[in-house]
Protein 1
Amino acid sequence: MPAKDNLHALFYPETVAVIGASSAPGKVGNTIVANMIGAGYRGKLFPVNPKGGEIEGLAVVSDIADLPRGLDLGVISVPRQFVIPSLEALAEIGAKSVIVITAGFKEVGGEGYHLEQKIIELCDKHGIALLGPNCLGMMNTAVGVNASFAAGHPNPGSIAFFSQSGALCVAILDWALGENVGFSKFVSLGNKAVLDEADMLEYLNNDEDTRVILGYIENVEHGESFLRQARKTCLNKPVIMIKSGTTAAGAKAASSHTGAIAGSDQTYTAAFHKSGVIRVGDVASLFNLAQAFSSQPLPKGPNLVVVTNSGGPGILAADSADRSHLTMAGLSQKTIQRLQEFLPSYAAFYNPVDIIGDADAKRYRQTLDVVAEDPMVHSIMVLLTPTATVEIEKTAEAVIHTAKKCGKPVFACFMGKNRVRKARLMLMEAGIPCYAFPEPAVRSIETMYEYYLWKHRPEPKYARIKGDKERALKVIRKHEQRNEPEIVEFEAQEVLKAYGLPTPQTSLARSSDEAVAAAEEIGYPVVLKIASPDISHKSDVGGVKVNLNDAAEVMSAFKDITARAQRMRQEAYIAGCLVQEMAPPGVKEVIIGFKRDEQFGPMLMFGLGGIYVEIMKDISFKLAPLSYQDAFEIVREIKSYMLLKGLKGEEPVNFVALEEIIMIMSQLALDLPQVWEAEFNPVLVNHERAIVADVRLTLHLKDEQ
Ligand code: ADP
Ligand code: MG
């Protein structure tokens, strides 16, 4: 990352040169100059063009070399072949930051890719903070900088926005102008050759003009710095992001369930979750939340009160609160008594507080003041249906009045469109989010409350797990030398033991006699499994027989399994059978696994095992390292959690034992980067204990790269 001062120079430039400035209206090189002037820029602005002359009343500099040394910002908008020479000339005069508007680089591949590499090299060498290439530009409303070719200037505000898509920047700017929403900084990232989302997060975290950060990203290339910066920033101010454009690239043909199920979208969800980033799916939610977060305090608890002038919408709001993490506040006796003093007897004094269709602004105001004072209330929603008698604008004033003094988040939901238009604007201007329907209002309050909880949760605690790494590495090296990426059950058990993971007693039997001897030693009933380094899905070849109760059964199972496996997999080397302790009846099968993500590292997964994995896809994900809290959550986030908790008087499974296995797996993933994927399927668990009854590890062999 370039020097910090250079980022400051980018956002607060005192000298700006537009390379490729043009006098022809409509040309990008003209729009940028006009935008800088139109935004009220007060620093020194230099249009640069070899043709000289005058642009927008400013004398044109014909050569970059004639610009002042240590220029703060150069904006390059020239044909592609002139970009590198311009950048070199800017580096020559010690320019601190550069925006490359020009497109045709990495995004087109080929020559473009190499040119972009050249940009990166130059910036690395000279410490230049560079935005783009292939971007729309940047705005900082605090100092009248609009170094972009967008149409229009946003108002100053407390929302910062950065986006990987220039088109989305344009759309959002237009929307913001229509809604009167202001921005602190507005950044089009383009190809992110140098500056990326992590740099923006770091910078905006310290930007006093910014209260909320919005981002649109299509990919993250440096997972680790993203996680670090996002986490740091989210503890300070909310970061809300849209992530789109999930590509199939990198989704290699995966050999395990973990690999197949853990698509890159889940990885992003896990990454956002880990760092506290609020992820939304659409632009409308992005803005609803931006407005809510930028203007309202966070709710300090889940209790919502709804004040309404009509029953139906009140019930809709209550229903949608029920489905959320919010609760409808129970009002105190004192509050109810106070309400009874002035509300008509036919009003509803319980939450939702229905002050009836003939409510005027005064009744709204009195009610709001009373409920806002109730300590059981953490957030307030004011619902208004535009009946014939209601005083719409005056009610808006009442809402503003209460919101200003109560210190709790207040949300308005003025239903409809035309008749509430003016009131809505009044509310928005006063910083009170106003919605047309209750559901999105509830969602906004819920998200703010969740962020509040995240921000105030205890510091994550990590376990200190020390495995016998050397012992595990021995097995891994052996496979690497033999060029075998798959480590199947028997040998993989050695790795598990090195990390103290619970495995069923198992021995390898080369003959049916050895199998019987092993079974007697272990104690009946036992399980027999085909033992072959070439067969990793044993059941597929009829290679697993459970519940064998005596010598005769073991003997015949051995013959059966080995003969069938040899028939079905003629090329396979068959070592014999594993004889294994059988888990008691009634155990539940779960799957615990991890898959390595190129950007974000190992991602752990947990779900119901066996056939359910593929059918139900009921899996939850977390990025390593997992804290105790993460392990606690991951086993409870799946839909089938209730099954594990036990149905109809069944005892719950030993969750602590499962969490322990998950924590150890997280450690194993960090200790052994050679292991690309791991899958314990099944882990058999009951109320007493959990054991890893099957395991497969997949190595990342060097020559595969
Ligand atoms: P595969 O290679 O087919 O995945 P597994 O070792 O997972 O083979 O065995 C298949 C199934 O057999 C498991 O899902 C589980 O239902 C059962 N099973 C395997 N080992 C045991 C065991 N030790 N105790 C009880 N059941 C087992
Ligand atoms: Mg299995």
Note: The two ends are 28 Å apart (CA to CA).
Protein 2
Amino acid sequence: MSPPLKLAVLISGNGSNLQSIIDAIKSARLNAEIKAVISNNRHAFGLVRATQHGLHTWVLEHEDYKDRKQFDDVLRHYLEAIDPDYIVLAGFMRILGADFIRAFENRILNIHPSLLPAYKGLDTHQRVLDNHEKEHGVSIHLVTAKLDDGPVILQASYPIKPGDDAEKLQQRGHRLEHRMYPQVLSWLSSGDLSIKDGRLYYEQIPLEKPIPFDA
Ligand code: GRF
């Protein structure tokens, strides 16, 4: 078996996606090792989850740094020392600068609660409801310098039902998310999925469109 995929997971809040990755590793569904859990919010519950599982945690909050660049530089130095195979953004609510992203090109993943490229940014659940959309979804994508941009790897969609509110959509999305991140990471770990020069390959064949998640 190939060596475990080295991950750094960046969070800001609840950390339920982090938990799904921890659970997948513990149950041997995912051959990976979380080298560090990093949060830009010292109150993030995800830090408690990480500590409970004996993971190394680190907090860096923006008010301790003079500007965005200094924050990014400190984070970059820390990550360079860990040298993870992938940086997993799992509810990390801070925009990373282009220099940072360039330093880890092809190695940063994000999970976003919408059918990208639709509904980039925040409050996706309320916005799809306000626009009377018929469906909504979750996307896992490679991070590029543009917000919520970058090629989508795996995408799940689900119908919006009468009576749905933002909370119900969030819960439905989360149930999918918790299966999707471990899936993508396990493809990376096995080599089924690879990323080169900003392009995705599944079983060595260029991925022209997102893989539909089979819910
Ligand atoms: C998820 O809904 C994810 O799509 C978004 O932030 C949320 C994080 O949730 N990027 P959690 O902290 O993993 O529970």
Note: The domain at 5-212 is CATH 3.40.50.170 (Rossmann fold).
Protein 3
Amino acid sequence: MIDFRLQAKNDKDATVVLLTSGQTHPLFKNELEKGEIYPVLEDANTFLFVGLGKTDKLSLTDLRIQVRKACLSNYLQKAKSLEIIPHSKTDAAIIAIIEGVAIGTYVWDKYKSKDKNDKTVKIKDVTIVVENKKVFTDAVTICQGVSLTRDLVNENADTTTSEYLEKTVLALIKGHKNISLEILNRKELKAKGLNLHLAVNQASNKEPKLIIVRYEGDKKKEGYTAIIGKGMTFDTGGLNLKPTGSIETMKIDMAGAGAVCGVLKNVLALGIKKNLLFVLGIAENSIGSTAYKPGDVITGYAGKSVEIGNTDAEGRLVLADAFAYLVKNYKPAKMIDLATLTGACVVALGFDYTGLFSNNDKLAAQLLDAAHKTDDRAWRLPIYPELKEHIKSPIADLKNTSNIKGGGASTAAEFLHQFTQDTIWAHLDIAGSSYTEGTCRMYYGHGATGTGVRLLTNYLLNN
Ligand code: BES
Ligand code: ZN
Ligand code: ZN
């Protein structure tokens, strides 16, 4: 983790100077094209001049990308401490620069042997002299929440288990006031009838868990907003086993619960004054002789029976029980879930946008606004009354798969909708946006992106 400072240190190794067209620096009078990097050596300090191009053509995404590129540049190989001289001191530019560094240079290398000839840049601390201290410190805090989520998602599935997620939550809330906790383990889930959740976990040797953190940040007793994450610590697909090519990345199927941890960390660090429920629906969708089966009919906490059309459509089952349990026992004013729910969402939107579904236009608009402002992107997809027909079953109240081909992200969202009991609700399908395979997408390196954390932290700060 990089340490960020507000005051320039004299013994810094390198200085990155961001320049838009027309801007110059005493040491560098030339103009750079966008993406051009020019080093100047001055005593012990390396100056790296970075061209950003014309101001009106520079998006904040571009800015993050250019900052990341500069920080990872070979010219900074030996630098441990860095000062960044921004081209602009607007709040939005400062936030983008901090994110370009913190999100852009994040790497998951815990299991990589240390290589003597390793040429990767290892910057330990970064200074940016800014006018608005709070904007700076808040942005750094929010990035730390994003990194926590990325670590949880990138870790091996047999490390990030339900126990591990529980420990993570306990460590986050330790010492904080206005917090109470309810944890339902296998025994309690059974006693209370969360049978859909239990069915998904049936072939796993790990404990299923429903974790509910109640945070009372608003003494005026405003209604609670529940932030609910799908926490499938591994999704084999169950007896409808995922094929090679689909199964390899399924440790990421807890990215929703991971994001809930990141948002919880941020809410506590920023002292956000809202009443919130942080909910993690955790299970492991394993395969084995005790696994739940296609064709099973299971009645969950809401009292609705569900025909299992496919054991790989497991996330909606865990969320259905979580929704029903929350609605009955906590009566939240709003529910927002994050879930790596469907491959269909990836087909529809690709990897750069989260799919947003909602039964409430105001909430959808607020979330889209937060997504736009944070660059943690989302795009609204439809749910509509006729979808209910698609998830009908001849032998049960509902089916966990669709009777027609196509539109799988919407039918999954409609399945969840059936368990909201008219609570204001939004669903974020993060199946595509939570993970980057290969070297890089925008300013994310390989692996987990921490999607949803910036979006929801911004939403909670502003609404
Ligand atoms: N966890 C997957 C969805 C997923 C796919 C997440 C790709 C991340 C990347 C989910 O549980 C799943 O398998 N969904 C099925 C549903 C189908 C059987 C109706 C899918 O999308 O194929
Ligand atoms: Zn699945
Ligand atoms: Zn899944």
Note: The CA atoms of residues 162 and 457 lie 24 Å apart.
